[in-house]
Amino acid sequence: MKLTYQGHSCFIVECKGQSIIIDPFLNGNPLAKITPKDVTVNAVLVTHGHGDHLGDAVEISKKNNAPIIGTFELVNYCLAKGATGHAMHIGGGHNFPFGRVKLTIAHHGSSIDTAATGNPCGFLITIDGKTVYHAGDTGLFSDMALIGETNSIDCALVPIGDNFTMGVDDAIRAVGMLKPRIAVPMHYNTFDLIKQDPEAFRRGLAGKQVRVEILKPGETLEV
Ligand code: NI
Ligand code: MN
Questions:
Q1: What is the pLDDT of residues 29-72, one digit of tens each?
Q2: Number of structural domains, the chain?
Q3: Which ligand is nearest to the CA of 48?
Q4: How far apart are CA 220 and CA 210, in angstroms?
Q5: 207 C-alpha vs ligand 2 centroid, how far in Å?
Q6: Per DSSP, which regions of 113-181 are E strands?
Q7: How many A from CA of 52 to the centre of ligand 2?
């Protein structure tokens, strides 16, 4: 499984000829190395409605005839904009042609412009026996220990930007509960307000049973 980072919380996951994009914030993302036109995917996963996550999801969905996967309220919003979609909700999992997606809780908001788009979520994505956890935008929550106990997480993508989400210290605690094989920081250095040193995240996890991978935008990680 290959993970390519596009800055902020956007990742492309490729495995066995299948490809998905998570939180496709490309237009307006100063870190992104690609535009929506460059994206060829089988599905678009969106954690919540905020513009820095929903991003270009509708355009990418239409261009690829790829479903937007997310919470019921957010997917309904996207359907009304002409996208295709598959609505789910927190705690539910579904087997898609590319793999399994399960929605987890995330403590945050979810709206776009003046539209309320329900609750935010995180994703557990299992493809070909590998599991990636994308936490979405969230604060630290102790149920991360339950997520870690009930899933063998190969790679955890956790926000470290502070202000809108967990900061570095809470993200370090999150990784301690999730117990992934690899931890990747996200949602930082896109804007001044979420400026963080990812090396502080790495240092905080030194000596723990986890490999920290700090990805530059455009960089690919083999999981
Ligand atoms: Ni947000
Ligand atoms: Mn955000």
A1: 999 999 999 999 999 999 999 999 999 999 999 999 999 999 99
A2: 1
A3: 1
A4: 18
A5: 30
A6: 115-116, 121-127, 130-134, 155-159
A7: 5
